[in-house]
C-alpha cells in the first residue's frame, strides 16, 4: 500500500510532469472507483493543472479550482504514459485500469488497481475537505508543528490501545500504514502490542518513539525524492527492516523476523529488538507464545 513517503514522492513527480499542462479529458474505466458525481469528471476537461499535493495518503491534483483526489488504497498505483491511446478505454472488471487522465499534449497517466478487491477511490470536489476521509485526517507527522508533546497528547487520548493500531489509524496520525508502522516500532525497539498509555509513563520510550517516527518517515521521503513513479515501489521494499521480511534475519541483531497474522493483514517484528526475545502469539488474544 502506498503510504506517506510514496504518495509524497508521487505528488512531487507528477507536479513536475504536469506543470503547465491542461487536462484534455478523464476516462473512467472502473465505475465503482468514482465516489462523487457533482462536479462530474467532464468538468475537468480543459482545466489547467495548478498543483499536485497530498493529504495523508490522498493524492490531490488541483486544476482550475477543482480537486481530483485519489486514494490508492492497498493495491492502487499511478503509471505515467508518454503517449496514451486515442480511444478511451472500455470498462472491464478484468482490467487493472481504473481511470486515465489525458493531457493536452497526448501524454497522461493511468490510475490502476491490481487484484480483485477494488478499494481505490476517486473524488472530484471543489474543496478537499468535502471528502470524508480527508476531513477526518489526524495531524501530518512530517509538519514542524508535530511535536513530541502532540504525540503525547495523542497517546493520552488512546488509553490502552495497542500502539500498532494507533500509528495506523488515519484519524489519529495521517499517512502511516501497515509497513511504516512496523518500521517505526522496530526503530523504536517497541512491541506492536504496547499500550499507548504505558508509553507515556516512560519519557525515554516516548521520545524514542517520536524520534523513530520522524526519522523513519523523513529518511523514506529523502530516499524517494527525485524518483519516478515506476521506481518507488522497489525503493520502498529494498529499505524495509522488518515489514514483509518474515523468516529473514533482522538487519540490526540478526534474529529471525517474525509475523503476527490477522484476518486481512499482518505485522512483522523482531523479538530481540522489540519484545525482549519473546515471540508474540499469532493471534490477538495472547501476548506471548507459551
From TrEMBL:
Which superkingdom does the taxonomy of this entry point to? Bacteria
One annotated GO molecular function: oxidized purine nucleobase lesion DNA N-glycosylase activity
The record ties this protein, via InterPro entries, to: FPG_cat, FPG_N, H2TH_FPG, Ribosomal_uS13-like_H2TH, Znf_DNA_glyclase/AP_lyase, Znf_FPG/IleRS
Query: What are the names of the required cofactors?
Result: Zn(2+)
For the keyword Lipid metabolism, the answer is no
Listed A to Z, the keywords are: DNA damage, DNA repair, DNA-binding, Glycosidase, Hydrolase, Lyase, Metal-binding, Multifunctional enzyme, Zinc, Zinc-finger
In this chain the FPG-type domain maps to 241-275
Give the E.C. number(s): 3.2.2.23, 4.2.99.18
The family this protein is said to belong to: Belongs to the FPG family.
Q: What is this protein called?
A: Formamidopyrimidine-DNA glycosylase
Organism expressing this protein natively: Nocardioides marmoribigeumensis
Amino acid at each position: 500500500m502506498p503510504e506517506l513517503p510514496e504518495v509524497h514522492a508521487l505528488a512531487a513527480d507528477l507536479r513536475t510532469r504536469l506543470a503547465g499542462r491542461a487536462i484534455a479529458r478523464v476516462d473512467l474505466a472502473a465505475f465503482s472507483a468514482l465516489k462523487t458525481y457533482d462536479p462530474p469528471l467532464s468538468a475537468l476537461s480543459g482545466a489547467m493543472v495548478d498543483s499536485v499535493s497530498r493529504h495523508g495518503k490522498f493524492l490531490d491534483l488541483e486544476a482550475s479550482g477543482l480537486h481530483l483526489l485519489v486514494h490508492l488504497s492497498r493495491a492502487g498505483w499511478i503509471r505515467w504514459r508518454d503517449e496514451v491511446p486515442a480511444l478511451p478505454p472500455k470498462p472491464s472488471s478484468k482490467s487493472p485500469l481504473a481511470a486515465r487522465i489525458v493531457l493536452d499534449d497526448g501524454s497522461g497517466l493511468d490510475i490502476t488497481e491490481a487484484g480483485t478487491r477494488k478499494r481505490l477511490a476517486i473524488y472530484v470536489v471543489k474543496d478537499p475537505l468535502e471528502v470524508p476521509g480527508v476531513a477526518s485526517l489526524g495531524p501530518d507527522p512530517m509538519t514542524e508543528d508535530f511535536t513530541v508533546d502532540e504525540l503525547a497528547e495523542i497517546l493520552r487520548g488512546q488509553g490502552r490501545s495497542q500502539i500498532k493500531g494507533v500509528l495506523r489509524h488515519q484519524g489519529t496520525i495521517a499517512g502511516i500504514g501497515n509497513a511504516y508502522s512496523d518500521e517505526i516500532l522496530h526503530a523504536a525497539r517497541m512491541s506492536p502490542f504496547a499500550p499507548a498509555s504505558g508509553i507515556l509513563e516512560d519519557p525515554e520510550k516516548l521520545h524514542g518513539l517520536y524520534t523513530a517516527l520522524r526519522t523513519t518517515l523523513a529518511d523514506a521521503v529523502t530516499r524517494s525524492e527525485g524518483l519516478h513513479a515506476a521506481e518507488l515501489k522497489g525503493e520502498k521494499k529494498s529499505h524495509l527492516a522488518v515489514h514483509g521480511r518474515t523468516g529473514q534475519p533482522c538487519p540490526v541483531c540478526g534474529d529471525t523476523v517474525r509475523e503476527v497474522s490477522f484476518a486481512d493483514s499482518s505485522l512483522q517484528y523482531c523479538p530481540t529488538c522489540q519484545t525482549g526475545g519473546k515471540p508474540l502469539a499469532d493471534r490477538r488474544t495472547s501476548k506471548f507464545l507459551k
